[in-house]
Automatic annotation (TrEMBL):
It is a single-pass membrane protein. Its main location: mitochondrion. Pfam families: LETM1_RBD. Residues 4-182 form the Letm1 RBD domain. This is LTMD1 protein. It is found in: Mitochondrion inner membrane. It comes from Tyrannus savana.
Length: 182
């Protein structure tokens, strides 16, 4: 079932990336716009983003066109499918549910960081990765741990106002994870 669910989730990834690239074009400042467009192009080209690249664009995800309440409805629907939320609700409810779920994951991330990844069984580690967008069925425990550690570094660095970046990172960090890093 995980493989089927993941294929449904992954079918939304191109729409999320296209929506993000489209929203990036509307950013008023040239430097963040360029960094985000470059990030989208790299991920669409098969590369994995580095944590520093994601943190470099974080300011664009709070108080701009990239905040969850400012995204186009089709973009919010695609992000909702990534989180396995029904996309068939009015836009205001979709945005509210999406924000609520992302903030809940962020809260869980802080608790998980305090607990320590070493306390997780392999099954718990894989479930934690899956909740955050990574299909870990074909990955080893070390790869899952490395990915989750990177995710936690990002999540715990971000503020609640940057929840949109965390939602997009479910796609950005997991899309090409089975491929070698560039």
């Amino acid at each position: 079932f995980l493989v089927v669910d993941d294929s449904i989730r992954r079918a939304s990834y191109p729409a999320v990336l296209q929506g993000l690239a489209r929203a990036a074009r509307s950013l008023p400042e040239p430097r963040p716009r360029q960094l985000l467009q470059q990030l989208c192009s790299q991920v669409q080209g098969g590369a994995r983003p580095h944590l520093a690249q994601l943190l470099a664009v974080r300011s664009s995800f709070s108080g701009s066109a990239l905040v969850l309440s400012g995204l186009q409805v089709d973009h919010v629907r695609a992000l909702s499918r990534v989180l396995f939320l029904t996309p068939h609700l009015p836009a205001v409810l979709l945005r509210h549910r999406l924000l609520s779920h992302v903030l809940e994951i962020r809260h869980l991330d802080r608790a998980l960081l305090r607990l320590g990844l070493g306390q997780l069984s392999e099954e718990e580690l894989r479930a934690a990765c899956y909740l955050r967008g990574l299909n870990s069925t074909h990955l080893g425990q070390a790869e899952c741990g490395a990915w989750l550690e990177q995710w936690l570094q990002l999540s715990c660095e971000l503020q609640a106002s940057e929840a949109s970046l965390l939602a997009h990172s479910m796609v950005l960090l997991s899309l090409n994870y089975s491929r070698p890093s560039e």
